[in-house]
Design goal:
Layout: H1 8-16, H2 27-37, H3 51-62, H4 64-75, H5 80-86
Helix pairs in contact: 1-2
Length: 87
Amino acid sequence: MDDFVNTEKDVEFLLKDGIVENMLGDDNEVCTLINNLGRGISVDRESFYFTTLSESLNSYCRKPWNKWKANLRQNYFNTPWATISKA
């Protein structure tokens, strides 16, 4: 999970989709908890269940076009009203 959660925004997505429940009260605390779960544990990347998914996701995120598109959606077109007001 640590590979998928780096910021409070990542926790928000997991909460919104019902993947995790926040009983700590603060998204930052959930982020810290998830990031500390694997501390001191070594993972064999070759036999890791999500290796293929993780590699595909990282490959997708490295492409400039996808970064640009994500930036536009998150910062400029994050609501229907933002889209209308920019026109």
